[in-house]
Amino acid sequence: MAEPKILIVDDELIVIKSAERVLKGEGYSAEGALGGREAIMKLGQESYDLVFTDLKMPEVDGITLIRWIKKMKPAIGIVIITGYPSQDTIKDALELGIIDYVPKPFTPSVLLDVTERAVQWTRGRKPEEAKKTEEFPPAMAAELDRVVAQLKKKPGALIPVLQRAQEIVGYLPPIVQKRIAKGLNIPEAEVHSVVSFYSFFTMRPRGDHNIRVCLGTACYVKGIEGVLKKIQDTLKIDVGETTENRRFSVEAVRCLGACGLAPVMMIDQETYGAMTPKKALEKISQFDPTILEAPSADEAEELAEKEA
Ligand code: FES
User: Fold this and answer.
1) What is the fold, at CATH topology level, of the domain defined by 209-307?
2) Which CATH architecture has domain 5-129?
């Protein structure tokens, strides 16, 4: 089966180029359009299966582009790939029927994960292949449906359903939110508002181990910043990201309720106090000793300076 053709729309060339590189590396056919206006031109001239678009762009923004596609080329699947969308903009996009959302800056694994699901979505909806594929693994979908059926009659079912869904799927992408909204017979926008409001829900995939670093006042004055920097340098990810191998995610939070132990971090459900950069790495390396094998960016720089 031919790989789908993807159009990446962004007003930053660097985003287009990096998405192209990742997608082409996996055998997808991908090309870019520098902004909504150029995208509409290209969509008028050639056929595409998927459009990945930024929302905030000058002249023709993402929402306008999505509306145009839905009206003129409704068979094309749409994924949003954007930095800090407002809740209202995401709501608008969900109501227009996007497939999924990729946060920017993205890691190759997140982009490929969402692309794979978007491809399945597109294939599942093409008339000639209708219903042949599931939107996500059938066992996961069945478990999610079972949870919804079990809890839907209880008052305030949405939050417990979302909690269970996050345990099952690992995170709550739009595709999962849509399935829950349908199962509970409520608007998708309502599900999205709850997911966005509570910090314990996430729309980004997390790693096997979630590291939460407290940037609250007590931790901050005791030097948590240095701890966070060390973790970021060692795992080579920023706050809100997941490592390439999906082992770790890093989150920054305001207070973990253990100020007396400051500076504090948590790994999964375990709290660790009096952290230093060294101690933090020791704790993290208990889950994956290989993180200590490669020197961090700072250490590599130091080593290079010493060798020079
Ligand atoms: S400020 Fe860090 S635990 Fe409270």
Assistant:
1) Glutaredoxin (3.40.30)
2) 3-Layer(aba) Sandwich (3.40)
